[in-house]
Amino acid sequence: MSNGSDNKNKSEPAIVRLDDSARNEARSILFHAYRNEPTFQYLFDHRRPGYEQRVRATVRELIDLYLEHDQDAIGVMVDDTLVAVAFIGDPELRMNLADQISWRIRMVLTTGFASTRRYLDYHEKIRNLLPQPQAHQLPLMGVNPKYQNRGYGRLLLKTVEKLCAENPQGSGLVLDTGNNRYLPFYESEGFRSLGKIQLGDFEDHVLFREVHPESKAAAPGHV
């Protein structure tokens, strides 16, 4: 993969756009990012055999869905290695997730009916918390565990915010997390709580920040 420019200092992180060639690397990063997350553990029943297979299948199907719909997908490259990725949902796409029939069929076949139903119910609850319909979604974002705590997650999120600001279809960005340790990070980026969703014995936090148009920054390279 290439970011389309000569980078003399290869240790400097570079923002890149992702395409089909990045699918496998993105799947690996997001699997490791989500398999221990409380929300995924609840939705896909980590106590039942086959949990990791269901997480892998869900990550794969979501990545395929967003790429098939030409949604923005970006990553951070360091020394020619993809270390972090984010997939951004158009204001309408995630809201209509239940209407993606072929995706639903693939999810049922790979994760089971119960897990698919819980996942769809969960996203319907998120939709009901939105302050207004025109909001971008950040359904998938993760950093390779080997590269965490180096600022790559913050760099990625700031780039997501800039892309959303350049898109006139939405005026805000919504994300969610079931991990309380991430809340200070998101709050430091200007996110506020829209509410909480009860999932078993813990709560998933739905967060929102307004995104206002800015002067366009240099476009990231294409992978």
TrEMBL record:
<protein>
    <submittedName>
        <fullName>GNAT family N-acetyltransferase</fullName>
    </submittedName>
</protein>
<dbReference type="InterPro" id="IPR016181">
    <property type="entry name" value="Acyl_CoA_acyltransferase"/>
</dbReference>
<dbReference type="Pfam" id="PF13508">
    <property type="entry name" value="Acetyltransf_7"/>
</dbReference>
<keyword id="KW-0808">Transferase</keyword>
<feature type="domain" description="N-acetyltransferase">
    <location>
        <begin position="139"/>
        <end position="192"/>
    </location>
</feature>
<dbReference type="GO" id="GO:0016747">
    <property type="term" value="F:acyltransferase activity, transferring groups other than amino-acyl groups"/>
</dbReference>
<dbReference type="InterPro" id="IPR000182">
    <property type="entry name" value="GNAT_dom"/>
</dbReference>
